[in-house]
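[step 3/7] fold_predict: job queued, chain A
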Amino acid sequence: MKRHLILIALIAVAVTACKKDKFNAAEQAKTDEADIKYYIGINKIPAVKDDESPLYYQIINSGSDSHPTETAKVTLAFEISLLDGTQINKGTTSAQPLSGLIEGLRRGIPKIGAGGQIILFIPSALAYGPQGYANIPPNKVLIYKLNLVSFN
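[step 4/7] structure written:
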């Protein structure tokens, strides 16, 4: 009898260990949007939603009249943090192809010109998604405070 109970317990453990939570992109998108709306509301940030994506942004300074295109190389001063205030990174990039950056940056950076400043509230789907990256946990909204130093 003990053998049967042990066998049943082992099978139950094996089945539950193999069962993984399935990622639900639609649910994550709803969670991200709710989190962004809460954050910008509680902090009284006059951010707006992008017309074509779930990106929210606040233009601090629009910069020059000329804006980078997808083929531009951009030089940025940046701060990256999570909604809970955890700082992820801070620095300045050398000229990077805009096309090689995460989708949230590709959508947000062209909204300003050289010398412009913007804050991007990037949902996880436009950032690093369910896999995360380096010290960025999976499924996290990112806040990018950017200064577009230059582009060409």
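[step 5/7] annotate
Strands lie at 48-49, 56-61, 73-82, 87-92, 96-97, 117-122, 142-151.
The first helix runs from residue 2 to 18.
exit 0
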